Amino acid sequence: MKSVKITKTNHSINMETPVDATIVRGKFYNNLKDDFDAAIPGDGLAKADTISEYTAGSGVTIDGVLLKDGLVQTSNLKTTTTVLTATQIVGTDAGDIGHSAGAILVPAAATGHVYEFVSAMLILNFAVKAYTGGATDLVVRVGTVAQCAAITAASLLGASADVIMQINKIATNTLATAATTINLAGTAFTQPDTAAGTLTCIVTYRDHLTTL
Fold first, then answer.
1. 3-class DSSP assignment, residue 71
2. How many CB atoms lie within 10 A of CB 36?
3. Which among 4, 35, 76, 211 counts the fewest CB atoms within 10 Å?
4. What are the pLDDT digits (tens) for 82-130?
5. 22 vs 173, which has greater pLDDT?
6. Better pLDDT: 34 or 118
7. Is residue 1 domain-shared with residue 95, that is, in the same domain?
8. Which residues contact 135 (CB under 8 A, 6 or more apart)?
């Protein structure tokens, strides 16, 4: 049933309890009613130009389709962005490139799930000086299994300018491990004596449910 505005003739209809008789100022209710009708008029078709996420970073889901960060994400194809700091690029502690578990780009899959790496964009935001050190062993991994060809130091983190590198999955078959992370791992670089850049990692992957 279509809602109606409060008027001098209908404001007391069907008042059966004290709660029903709680005063609502018609002026304020009617302003709200006008706003509501502008968005959803009598034909029942919403007229909103934009739909914003309620919780920051969660996107908006419509009929099971997630719209997040300007991308359409299906139930198992997802994209996430992580920015690695200079500390993570030169470090060997947990969460750093030089750690055995690598710098985490996608947190570990849930129990019974396995990630399929699809592709990535690695973007070096160069600052003042280039990183030194490193090696030709930097790779995107699922767990501990490399998903791409090794990246040379000079072509990415050791570069002296901004770099945008597309990372593709290697053509050979790889073993998959459930409930593991997608990470970036390799020999830790050396921090120059002044500001060094950050690395933006945009990873596209699928989240599969396994029966194992």
1. strand
2. 11
3. 211
4. 999 999 999 999 999 999 999 999 999 999 999 999 999 999 999 999 9
5. 173
6. 118
7. no
8. 153, 186, 187
